Amino acid sequence: MEVSVIYEDGMMGMVDPQRLQALIDADSIIKFQRSDGWVYPGIDPVRTASSGYQGPERRMN
């Protein structure tokens, strides 16, 4: 399942969940879309690799 993203240059794209995390970590996107709407990294809460989350990886489904 791919995720819609808006890059820093305003272009829209689709990325897989692993690439999404890399883009968030690199501050390369303005926003990405979840099922409940657009998320703005740095403003809205997002799960990061260093967040300590121990639950199942649901983004892969």
Secondary structure blueprint with pairings:
Blueprint: E1 3-7, E2 12-15, H1 17-25, E3 29-34, E4 37-39
Antiparallel strand pairs: 1-2, 1-3, 3-4
Overview of this structure, please?
The chain is α+β, with helices and mostly antiparallel strands and 61 residues long. The protein has a domain at 3-44. It has one helix and four strands; from the N terminus they run ββαββ. The chain starts with a strand and ends in a 22-residue tail after the last strand. The mean pLDDT is 84.
Q: Structural class of the secondary structure composition?
A: alpha+beta
Q: Characterize the overall form.
A: globular
Q: What's the rounded overall pLDDT mean?
A: 84
Radius of gyration: 11 Å
The rounded distance between the terminal residues' Cα atoms is: 7 Å
Extract low-pLDDT stretches.
none
Helix-strand string:
EEHEE
Major sheet strand order = 2-1-3-4
Keywords:
61 residues, 15% helix, 1 helix, alpha+beta
Short description:
The protein is of the alpha+beta class and 61 residues long. The protein is 15% helix and 30% strand. It has a domain at 3-44.
